């Protein structure tokens, strides 16, 4: 769970670096420099500074769930069966690997889970396990198609100093 974070306003060049690395985290410093007009060492220094400030927090491979046979994506809204029970659903459900994201939300539900499974039967089984492990009721929305996802966030951009 994350707490409040103070927004970082980026210089336009740093915002460009963040966007380029979000699109391709494997860019070399030489290529990053070429695309931004910086020397290799200046690009490296800027990336290091963005990492130190916590703007860049890591690099990861993007995996195509369909290539792994996980053709169904769904969003599962959950709320506790007993509103007086502790708010520990994320901990109760953390062992379920089909849950790829868990969002605390305002509204009728307490959390929205993004899940990926292979078949409708696997989704039905997962929903039963979510209800049992979390002592929650569920409401499920299946994704039909995904025009885009995991887009890099638009960073607030200031002026060059």
Integer-rounded radius of gyration: 20 Å
Number of strands: 4
- Terminal CA distance reads 34 Å
> DSSP strand (E) fraction?
15-25%
In CATH terms, the superfamily of the largest domain is: Lrp/AsnC effector binding domain/regulation of amino acid metabolism (RAM) domain
Total number of helical segments? Answer: 5
- What would the principal axes of the Cα set say about the shape? elongated
* Average predicted confidence as pLDDT: 92
CATH-derived architecture of the largest domain:
2-Layer Sandwich
CATH class of the largest domain: Alpha Beta
- H and E order: HHHEHEEHE
The domain tally reads 2
Spatial sequence of strands, sheet with the most strands: 2-3-1-4
The helix-and-strand class reads: alpha+beta
Question: Helicity range of the residues?
Answer: 25-40%
Might you state the CATH topology name of the largest domain?
Alpha-Beta Plaits
The parts where pLDDT drops under 50 for at least 5 residues are: none
Describe the sheet with the most strands.
4 strands, antiparallel
Short description:
With 161 residues, the protein is of the alpha+beta class.
Task: Give the secondary structure arrangement, pairings included.
Blueprint: H1 12-23, H2 29-36, H3 40-52, E1 72-80, H4 89-93, E2 99-104, E3 111-117, H5 120-134, E4 136-142
Antiparallel strand pairs: 1-3, 1-4, 2-3
3D architecture notes:
The protein is of the alpha+beta class and about 160 residues long. The protein folds into two domains: about 10-50, Winged helix-like DNA-binding domain superfamily/Winged helix DNA-binding domain (Arc Repressor Mutant, subunit A); about 65-140, Alpha-Beta Plaits (2-Layer Sandwich), CATH 3.30.70. The chain has five helices and four strands. The chain has a four-stranded antiparallel β-sheet with strand order 2-3-1-4. Strand 2 (about 100-105) and strand 3 (about 110-115) form a beta hairpin. The radius of gyration is 20 Å and the shape is elongated. The two termini are about 35 Å apart. The mean pLDDT is about 90.
């Amino acid at each position: 769970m994350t707490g409040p974070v103070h927004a970082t306003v980026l210089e336009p060049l740093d915002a460009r670096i963040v966007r380029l690395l979000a699109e391709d985290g494997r860019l070399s410093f030489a290529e990053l420099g070429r695309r931004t007009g910086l020397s290799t060492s200046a690009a490296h220094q800027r990336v290091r500074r963005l990492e130190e400030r916590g703007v860049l927090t890591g690099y990861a491979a993007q995996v195509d769930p369909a290539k792994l046979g996980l053709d169904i994506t769904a969003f599962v809204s959950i709320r506790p069966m007993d509103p007086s029970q502790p708010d520990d659903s994320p901990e109760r459900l953390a062992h379920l690997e089909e849950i790829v994201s868990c969002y605390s939300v305002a509204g009728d539900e307490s959390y929205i889970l993004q899940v990926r499974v292979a078949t409708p039967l696997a989704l039905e089984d997962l929903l039963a396990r979510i209800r049992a492990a979390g002592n929650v009721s569920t409401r499920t929305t299946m994704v039909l198609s995904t025009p885009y996802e995991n887009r890099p966030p638009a960073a607030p951009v200031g002026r060059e100093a």
